[in-house]
């Protein structure tokens, strides 16, 4: 009986120790890094509803270090509009996304931001200037006015996901356990104004 008790206490101690080791990276760096959607709204522009958003990028020291050592960082911007229904699940009318890549060219001492959906590329001399481009979204076309009924209610949403799977293979396990790599936003939801 004493042997079983010792084994059980040892197992509990092992579980607690493993839990602490697993959580230590997350506790070491409190949530002052990442991406926050500060505001987002839709408006009518001609025959389309367009999105305007302001985003705050706060990269961690590890992300900046990796970027400055040649690792490209990727974010996917996701958008959706759902029609509210009382008795069934909400109906998704629009789901769109596009992806940005930011990389540093050491020889040129330039940060390059690429929109991988439309192929546009911009170069900047500072990281802050590159992040400023990622931080503002203006008049992004979401849906045609004709697809929106005045009698229904709709909810628009936006999320920015940091693509940890796009990191080099040796960095991926660290990126999934260390909070310095938790660089995604939460869903930001708002009613679609008609």
Short structural summary:
This protein is an alpha+beta fold and 194 residues long. The protein is built from 4 helices and 9 strands, in the order αββαββββαββαβ.
Task: Give me the strand/helix succession.
Answer: HEEHEEEEHEEHE
Largest sheet: 6 strands, antiparallel
State the oligomer: single chain
Care to count the β-strands? 9
Work out the strand percent. Answer: 35-45%
Helix content: 25-40%
Q: Are there runs of 5+ residues with pLDDT below 50, and where?
A: 1-30
Question: What's the mean pLDDT score?
Answer: 85
Strand order of the largest sheet: 6-5-4-3-8-9
**Helix count?**
4
How much is the radius of gyration in Å?
Answer: 22 Å
Distance between the termini: 71 Å
Net shape: elongated
SS class: alpha+beta
Question: How would you characterize this protein structure?
Answer:
- The chain has 194 residues and is an alpha+beta fold.
- The chain has four helices and nine strands, in the order H-E-E-H-E-E-E-E-H-E-E-H-E.
- The strands form two sheets. A six-stranded antiparallel beta sheet has the order 6-5-4-3-8-9. A three-stranded antiparallel beta sheet has the order 1-2-7.
- Strand 4 (91-105) and strand 5 (110-115) form a beta hairpin.
- The protein is elongated.
- 19% of the residues are buried.
